[in-house]
Amino acid sequence: MKGIGQKPYWVGMNMSDEEEPLSVESRIAPPPLTCPRCDNLLPSELGEVKCRICRSEVKVEHEGTRKAWREEKISCPACNKVLIAGVDKRPAKIECSSCKAHFELKAHKVKVEITCPKCECKLRMNQRPGERQITCPACSAVFKINF
After folding, report:
1. What is the pLDDT along the chain (147 residues), one digit of tens a residue?
2. What does the alpha-carbon distance between residue 136 and residue 116 come to, in Å, rounded to a whole number?
3. In the chain, where the domains are located
4. What pTM did the predictor assign?
5. In CA terms, which of 13, 53, 70, 73 is 20 to 30 Å from 82?
């Protein structure tokens, strides 16, 4: 049992190759935007963003997202205390005010649902810019999608 003011036993331990550092995924993502040059999906980030298709540099700002990020409530992965993020960027390094654990607040991974054109099975995957070749796990049909 730990005493008051002591760090949990896992904070500050040397991590082996198999252990991952503490992290939490944000629930808030910037709105999906397309490149003004090639009309393909831009990475889900704010600031200077490079289109992964045509390599154009695009400045993306959205004050609503930055405000939501600053005010986002998250749970410490070490002690489960609810914290207010207080930072307007993702990823961000956070320290818990209660247990002093350090963790990363990761960017939200936007997921989309697509339908297999052959068997109409619903597939859920991470949305990312560019063309992807998909193999349906239900019927093994191979098809391409473009975001």
Report:
1. 444 444 444 444 444 445 678 999 999 999 999 999 999 899 989 999 999 889 999 999 999 999 999 999 999 999 999 999 999 999 999 999 999 999 999 999 888 899 999 999 999 998 888 888 999 999 999 999 987
2. 7
3. 23-106, 111-146
4. 0.72
5. 13
